[in-house]
Amino acid sequence: MAVVNGKDHAALADVFNKDKARVGWHDETLWFVRQKRDKAAHGIAEWEQLRQTASDIKDHVLSRLSQYLVEFETRAKENGIIVHWAADAEEHNSIVLGLLQKAGVNRMVKSKSMLTEECHLNEFLAKKGIEVIDTDLGERIVQLAEEAPSHIVLPCIHKKKEEIGALFHKHLGTPAGNADPQFLTEAARQHLREKFLTRRVALTGVNFAIAETGEFVVCTNEGNADMGAHLADVHIACMGIEKIIPKREHLGVFLRLLARSATGQPVTTYNSHFKKPRKGAELHVVLVDNGRSRQLARKDFRNSLKCIRCAACFNTCPVYRRSGGHSYHTAIAGPIGSILAPNLDMRQYADLPFASTLCGSCSNVCPVKIDIHDQLYKWRQVLGKEGYVPKSKELGMKGLAMAVNNATMFSVGGKLGRWVMRNTPFVVNNGMNPWFKQREMPEAPKESFREWYAKNRKEG
Amino acid sequence: MTVGLFVPCYVDQFYPQVAIASLQLLEKQGLTVRFPKKQTCCGQPMANSGFEHLTGGCNKNFLEAFEGFDYIVCPSGSCALHVKHHLKVEGQEALASDIRNRVYELTEFLTDVLQVKNLKARFPYRVGMHQSCHGQRGLKLSQMSELVAAPFSKPESLLRMVQDIEMVQLDRVDECCGFGGSFCVSEEAVSARMGQDRVADHQRNGAQVITGADMSCLMHLEGILRRQGSAVQVKHIAEILNGE
């Protein structure tokens, strides 16, 4: 079963829920982001049409992915970009390492890239003696805390400003007890400025790569991708192969959806286009598969690759808001992470498709209309059939299937169960029953509906 | 018109009054309503836990129980949705497909098929409406807050026909209660917290009664209310629509 230090999502969520006030704060904070998203979406009359258009474009791309990737590569090379292909995380990491070694450096700056989190690039490079400074403020905060991001857009959303103040006091020498967001942000800017000015290699992610022009677009609110890329001699951009869109004219559809879905902003502050290297500088793109073509071949799960990483499904998810990103024990948490992760490792992530009530809110906010909750259900079936669901649950379900197989057995079993609940309630009202921990059991009536019906309606 | 009453297994065993209210409500509309005894469970508990392949017995029962009815009506959006999406029996595909298309959730049936315009019911309480996700987002019983689209609500339009009822406005109009089938025990901490937060929304906004079209959500909320010793009650929408 999927675990981190022996704990699956439910166990990690149980730990998170020990601090009730904090759960309330986490829930409210992310609900606020969901409300901002609602307000922004409702400001656009054609919102649903925009979602459909984005979904259609992405479906089209996935149906011709190899074609668009080759087109992108050809155009990018014509522009002077050096293109690399990585089959998996390992190859991606060694390509990046090779480029750093070739440049003769042992340190670099990196803007937000969930792909490098997925590939565990920082840990890999650290082992090779290379220092990586994350320049996105939220990512820098979790990096100083030696934690993973808990959210793909808001990496340190699980931290309160007082905790960030204490962290900055320890690592950046800010005055003890100062938790003023503006002051702390300024301290981070000064700290990062020195890194930008002195690092010769910058790594960024990619939000969209345009096949027609061979350019790519990086979206940030802090301009940190630009600071890194413009000041470095070597810019390495890493992207999953699903980031392709056919034409520049399609970009508007996605940029209108992305920021509104993510934070409720009309547009991300910086949408930077990178098309060719500066004179004397190098520009590399690493195209990474890492399980994506396997997912592409899974008919039921293919369209999870439409994801543009806005995290709207995180913010709306009542389970995510009350369990925190780290309980998902994977780089991409939340509902979308729960349908992506089992493709990477079914055993390790078998718990995640069950970390949902299947309420369906995720699918409704998704700007590219991924049927997330249906895929969660379908992953459960795959995991059940392949034997990745805990044996205790399997036995319980087999027992239940037997009990409801036949109406007489069901009726007798139900009557017996209700008798037990009425006459010996301690059998169910105890610590062994997870329902009873925070809830009363329903009262067991003497007569079931079918018994009442047999007495009161002749034609039964 | 003959209607087959499809009663969720836990309603049959724990909430007979909900099935009785549903039956009487449909009979008041002048329909012939039958409860086929062969029915047990729709199979959703197994399927949502990853064992849809164990629901063959349930599916077969369902087919045998409900063959030949004009409509199959269920006082649960969740069970109705499950059957509509997942009922299949090898070798009887055409019959299964026919039956799937005859299944309606109760408020959907009253609104879309019977087109009920008034009800003889009175319920002089402040009522909070819990939108159950499978009914709302699955069967589209009411508009969803995530979408940019015109509002509507089949259950609420029926509740507005009830005399002296006062509907309360919630802060979060359609957040999940956290029941989620086996989720309620396998993810106990999150499930209970979600339920507590839902209950608090209703309490904060003055509801005396929480209603909804799915008794499973209400069973979960009732468990939390009773643990708190709260005076707030839960009532299935059929009980209110059938009340006089």
TrEMBL record, chain A:
One of its GO terms (molecular function) is 4 iron, 4 sulfur cluster binding. Residues 298-327 form the 4Fe-4S ferredoxin-type domain. The keyword Iron applies. Pfam families: Fer4_8, LUD_dom, LutB_C. One of its GO terms (biological process) is lactate metabolic process. Keywords: 4Fe-4S, Electron transport, Iron, Iron-sulfur, Metal-binding, Repeat, Transport. The keyword Ion transport does not apply. This is L-lactate dehydrogenase complex protein LldF.
UniProtKB/TrEMBL annotation, chain B:
GO terms for cellular component: cytosol. InterPro entries: Cys_rich_dom. Coiled coil: none annotated. GO terms for molecular function: oxidoreductase activity. Residues 3-84, 127-221 form the Cysteine-rich domain. It holds the Pfam family CCG. It comes from the Bacteria. This is L-lactate dehydrogenase complex protein LldE. It comes from Cnuella takakiae.
